[in-house]
Amino acid sequence: MYKDQRIIVVMPAYNAAKTLCRTYEEVMALGIVDRVIVVDDASHDETVAVARTLPGVRVHMHEVNRGYGGNQKTCYRLALDEGADIIIMVHPDYQYTPKLIPAMAAMIGSGLYSFVFGSRILGGGALEGGMPWWKYVSNRFLTFALNVLLGLKLSEFHSGYRAYSRELLESLPWDQNSDDFVFDNQILAQIAWRGDIVAEISCPTKYFPEASSINFLRSVKYGFGCLGTGVEFRLARLGLIRSKRFPRSLAFRARRHAGQ
């Protein structure tokens, strides 16, 4: 709890049996998380069996792989059903340290922000943490392009460490987003469309064999998907297209909110 607000950590899991316990233990050691939800996306290892041994964890298993975006959709639905006021996504591969959860929860729970983003670039530690050089270069290029298309000034767009307020998640049409990795980018664009401030916090990261990472070809597909999302956002903003991902009603709401 933070100021009587229920904090739920969601973990979209895929073949995370080797790192899940360590991530869970660090989350629970913080003493403020009310519930952990693990959604397994048809893993080939013992992720589900390991998750079921962890006290107080709600485990949900997809019978077939739905993709990273599809996994997140289940995570958020379950967290909202459980009465979460603050929802924090932490990958169970221990690439991101759970120690930032109290700071992220406080930023949401204080009412200052509705969304907090754990940036690997802010603070300059991405390469030191082992980020491959080609990922770093593509990250910088896509970040520049998306800042221009979305009208933002973020240090990066591609971290999976995120915290949301309940009100924000309930307002976004994230069910219209992809079930693939580009879901992350699309929901961030929807937050920008709504007019909410994206708060960033510096996040140390680690790259090691057990940490989840998409390969080069999937990264290329993801990159083009991000650019496509940015173009769709810009065309919708200019009124040249209608988009279910970026509905006018949500943009109008954002403008009214900004004028208060």
Topology (SSEs and partners):
Layout: E1 7-13, H1 20-28, E2 35-40, H2 47-51, E3 57-61, H3 67-81, E4 86-89, H4 101-109, E5 115-119, H5 133-150, E6 162-165, H6 166-171, H7 183-194, E7 199-202, H8 216-237, H9 248-259
Parallel strand pairs: 1-2, 1-4, 2-3, 5-7
Antiparallel strand pairs: 4-6, 5-6
Helix pairs in contact: 5-8, 7-8
Major pleated sheet: 7 strands, mixed
Shape: globular
**SSE order:** EHEHEHEHEHEHHEHH
Strand content: 5-15%
Distance between the termini: 29 Å
Name the CATH architecture. Answer: Alpha-Beta Complex
* CATH class label: Alpha Beta
Number of separate strands: 7
Structural class: alpha/beta
How confident overall, as mean pLDDT?
90
Count, helices: 9
Number of domains: 1
What Rg, in angstroms, do the CA atoms define?
A: 17 Å
Tell me the strand order in the biggest sheet: 3-2-1-4-6-5-7
CATH topology: Spore Coat Polysaccharide Biosynthesis Protein SpsA, Chain A
Poorly predicted ranges: 255-260
**What is the helix content?**
40-55%
